[in-house]
Amino acid sequence: MNIAVISIGNEVVKGRTVDSNSAEISSFLTSNGFNVTYHVSCKDETDEICKSLMFLLEEVDVIITTGGLGPTMDDISIESISKCLRLPLEMNAQALDILKTKYLSLKLELTEERLKMAKMPLGAEIIENKSGTAPGMFLKYDGKMIFSVPGVPREMRSMLPQILLNMGVSKKAYMSKEIRVNGIMESAIAPLIKEVFDVMNNGINIKSHPESFEFNNPVLIIEFYGYGDSQDDIENRINSTYKEFSQRVKNKFSVSI
Amino acid sequence: MNIAVISIGNEVVKGRTVDSNSAEISSFLTSNGFNVTYHVSCKDETDEICKSLMFLLEEVDVIITTGGLGPTMDDISIESISKCLRLPLEMNAQALDILKTKYLSLKLELTEERLKMAKMPLGAEIIENKSGTAPGMFLKYDGKMIFSVPGVPREMRSMLPQILLNMGVSKKAYMSKEIRVNGIMESAIAPLIKEVFDVMNNGINIKSHPESFEFNNPVLIIEFYGYGDSQDDIENRINSTYKEFSQRVKNKFSVSI
Predict the structure, then answer these.
(1) Domain named MoaB/Mog: which ranges (chains A, B) (predicted)?
(2) Domain boundaries of chain B, sorted by first residue
(3) Do residues B139 and B107 make contact, with C-beta atoms less than 8 angstroms apart?
(4) Are strands A62-66 and B62-66 parallel, antiparallel or unpaired?
């Protein structure tokens, strides 16, 4: 099951806001054994949202959009998804109930801007927003799943358990282990990484993340990660890969890690 | 001239690393008067890199990729771009000279992994890496521009002036002004934002970024931004929009901003 995240907002694409949402959603799903393959960010424009959606519907099974669910005129994510998929936009009874409860209890009118947040494509279910106002959306479309959650990180975060519940339990377990290596250039350790990867041939990825300069006291984070049929399975494969790697580093560079 | 950024790396899509590079590149280009419309992140896989590239080549004039230029086996961005565009990969003489100078001065061998960083698609120019080792790439393709820069933020950053030089001066000036509004709900200010946007009708975007809860002491950042034919032009339009907005806020909510 491949997953993509679409982060919608002018503030993201023009670089005002660093898109931590896509990372947080992906990290959460990866650690739960799922495979995220793409992130896309686009403006609050129906055309761009639709093009992103159509591109990703070709590539993945689950799409999670974040951003653009609020009451302002540029919050058009759900309306755009409806248009793009040619699904009628309708007032969702459950969402309306929630908004009524929230605003009317404060004696606030249900204005057009507030009601907008209850409009969902035909067939959508809502995801309750326990940390804010705009409800999230869950839609099954053409054998795929589309989720829309707010862009406010706290609200997005509060909906992740509900997304997971709808996706079901992954049959895979994920694990990552990182170590720090000092004093070896990335270009010097590169052939060793390839050697270990080829020798082990066990599906464990080995990635070097440079933390410092190639020359003059290089510092690398070496990451071992992958998916397994169980936690034990992935743990064993990562540990044996790490052991092989550290032995070869010791032999070649006369340093222990 | 529309621009997209592709951030390449498993660590980005699986959420290990927050993609601050795309934001930094976009912020730099936006403040220089350019229009960034998409970010895409994908894995270090030729197929995914190619699909991202083909999607964006349909949509934008300039593509900047970041990540995957180093010496390890998973650094395959430039090789993937070559394959995707069916351009032969060749040893770039200028890049080779730079690597020779860097490694041979330290009496280090030019291994296969190090030489890999000098391979570029036919017709590519290199962008010198003043802060690291792997050269960047600049390629003209089908009337469009493709830049590839490293994923290490310091190295990416050092190449931004060279990207700008190749893109030329934008005919537009960009400006953004932000103010903080306390105690007004986003759903309450939403119709006022639309009113001001419609009345002014001057191309200035007005966005509300919630910093806090809708209920209980809401805090909003209101952002006014847009492009103009000159710095004076955009400044005047933003200031008149801000003035109209603050006057209406004062009238409606009896608060000054």
Answers:
(1) 4-171
(2) 2-167, 173-253
(3) no
(4) unpaired
Question: Is the CB of B24 less than 8 angstroms away from the CB of A39?
Answer: no
Give yes or no for residue B22 having a pLDDT over 80. Answer: yes
B243 touching chain A per CB within 8 A: no
Q: What's the pLDDT at B207? A: 97
Residues within 8 A of B (CB atoms), A 121-140 only:
132-133
Average pLDDT over residues B227-250: 97
Distance (Å, whole) CA B217 – CA A115? 21
Average pLDDT over residues B117-123: 97
What is the ipTM metric for this complex?
Answer: 0.96
**DSSP state, residue B257:** -
Give the total residue count for chain B. Answer: 257
The predicted pLDDT at position A207 comes to 97
B-chain residues near A156 (CB < 8 A): none
Under CATH, to which class is A173-253 assigned?
A: alpha beta
The Cα-based distances of A123 to A74, A88, A138, A144, A146 in angstroms read 24, 9, 9, 13, 12
Q: Do domains B2-167 and B173-253 have the same CATH topology?
A: no
* Class at the top of the CATH hierarchy for domain B2-167: alpha beta
Measured between alpha carbons, how far is A108 from B124 in angstroms, rounded to an integer? 61
Checking if the pLDDT of B257 tops 80, the result is: no
pLDDT, position B191: 96
Q: What is the pLDDT of residue A255?
A: 80
Residue range A165-189, pLDDT digits in tens: 999 999 999 999 999 999 999 999 9
B169 interface with A at CB cutoff 8 Å: no
Q: Which of A83, A30, A15, A76 is nearest to A54 (CA)?
A: A83
Tell whether A182 lies on the interface with B, counting CB pairs under 8 A.
no
CA distance B73 to B95: 19
Sign of CA dihedral B227, B230, B231, B237: negative
* Segments in chain A forming alpha helices (H): 10-13, 20-31, 46-57, 77-85, 93-104, 112-116, 153-167, 186-200, 231-253
pLDDT digits (tens, 9 = 90+) for A79-103: 999 999 999 999 999 999 999 999 9
Q: What is the mean pLDDT of residues A117-131?
A: 97
- Do residues A225 and A176 make contact, with C-beta atoms less than 8 angstroms apart? yes
